[in-house]
Model the fold of this input.
Amino acid sequence: MPRQAIATSLAPAAIGPYSQAVRCGNTVYLSGQIPLDPATGEVVAGDIRAQATRVFENLRAVITAAGGSFDDVARVGIYLTDLGDFAAVNAVMADYFSAPYPARSTIEVSALPRAVKVEVDAIVVLG
Done:
């Protein structure tokens, strides 16, 4: 099946050779979002909650551009530079999702682009 790139100006432009998301049939694979303000391209100021909120808002913009919503998310991958931020990111994520929750993994990594604290990617199944 052909791949279709998904793009929106309401989320940060890719900072490398990748698409914000790619749709294959009814499945949409979202690239990782970091807490960049789409208007300025700068990392948002604030703590992990502020960064996580920006990440989920960026994801919402891409999911909407693909024709979906958070209810269509089947899987989320969360990457943290400090697992001590796990509870705070859970609290933010709970503002965006309701049961049944998507499958998820949370992985601590040594570093993320632009020295941010969190990155999140997702898989969405439409229809």
Summary: The mean pLDDT is 97. The chain has one domain: 3-125. The chain is about 20% helix and 30% strand. The longest helix spans residues 48-65.
